[in-house]
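Exam revision sheet. Question 4 asks you to relate a sequence to its structure. Input first:
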Amino acid sequence: MLEVRGLETYHGNIRALREVSIDVPEGKVVAILGANGAGKTTLLKTIAGALSPRAGTISFQGEDIAGVPSHKILRRGVALVPEGRSILSRMTVRENLELGAFVRRDGKVTEDMDRVMGRFPVLRQRQGQLGGSLSGGEQQMLAIARALMSAPKLLLLDEPTLGLAPLVVADIFGIIREINASGTTVLLVEQNVKQAMKVSSYTYVLETGKIVLSGPSAELAREPRIKASYLGPS
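Answer key, structure tokens:
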């Protein structure tokens, strides 16, 4: 579904991504791991069109989308849930969800609104509340639900459990599994390495903008470098 080849993205004169190549097969969850500053967020933003690469290709369903404006990429079926959620705090929950569907012209928005509310019952209960009045976990659910309202084929999740309580983290990973089981492909950036490798079928590890390790998640979890750097003693 997604093929990234030789991607190079800069922040000013600083090269943040160095010849990054990844594959995200349709129907799978793929994880991107790495320390802070490794380039994970830059990679997702470049795929989503928020940043333009200086070199490389990004092919989504056979079309090169490198450098295409983000709203056009969203219309093609790639939605980003950014780190920090970025919900509109002075708009209601329902208004946030309606905004997520602004690119759609298929006449199924009402149907999908009902489906999303069913998947996130707390949002149905709080649909008239301002987004900023929700708890951190509820805001993260709203951010994911808003992205789902665009009817994405590929969902990019940037640190969806950052700063959340353990019980909420478990809920979020359950939601990721449900989303994937319903047919949406997921590219996941996550610092909860154990859970990310459990939910994903394939993992890439970024260090200083380069892919340094990759492989099936179950196999990579046994890799000494992964265990030493991310998983700790078993």
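Marking note for examiners. The first strand starts at residue 2 and ends at 11.
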